[in-house]
Amino acid sequence: VQLVESGGGTAQPGGSLRLSCAASGFTFSSATMSWFRQAPGKERELVAVIDNRDATTNYAESVKGRFTISRDNAENMVYLRMSSLKFVDTGVYYCQAVVPWGSGWRNMYWGQGTQVIVSS
User: Fold this and answer.
1) Whole-angstrom distance between the N-terminal and C-terminal Cα of the chain?
2) What is residue 51's predicted lDDT score, i.e. its pLDDT?
3) Largest CA distance in the chain
4) Which residues pair with 3 in a beta bridge?
5) Residue 33 contacts by C-beta under 8 Å, 6 or more apart in sequence?
6) Using CA atoms, how far apart are residues 37 and 77, in angstroms rounded to an integer?
7) What would the pLDDT profile of 6-32 be if each residue is shown by its tens digit?
8) Is 24 helix (H, G, I), strand (E, B) or coil?
9) Taking Cα atoms as reference points, which of 52, 16, 9, 17 lies closest to residue 34?
């Protein structure tokens, strides 16, 4: 299983970035996909999640209206479009996959992370 994030970098406040996560090694269409982030000195937190069945999405309150998570099951990709960036959005962003198997079991996988810096 591999999750490879890309698209991080430096942006100014009010700017935009799009993160991508390329997935392989599992049945992507069955997985719930999420983006987490970890700011320096803080715990990792959930940013956004997208369901595998009907692409229902949920967001942390701090990013609602600014970030959009999406997925492309044909390409095994999940994206995070970030706009109106703020200093507090700085951190390492991680892609997570929760993959069901058997009767009620789930495996969780993480990518290596991509750095986002919001700086003027």
Assistant:
1) 37
2) 93
3) 50
4) 23
5) 21, 23, 49, 50, 52, 69, 71, 78, 95, 96, 97, 98
6) 18
7) 999 999 999 999 999 999 999 999 999
8) strand
9) 52
Q: Tell me the chain's radius of gyration from C-alpha atoms.
A: 14
**Cα 51 from Cα 34, distance rounded (Å):** 9
Closest CA to 91 of 49, 62, 68: 62
Alpha-carbon gap, residue 79 to 100, rounded angstroms: 21
Q: How many CB atoms lie within 10 A of CB 36?
A: 21
Q: Please compute the mean of the pLDDT values over residues 57-65 and round it to a whole number.
A: 97
Q: What's the pLDDT tens digit per position in 76-101?
A: 999 999 999 999 999 999 999 999 98
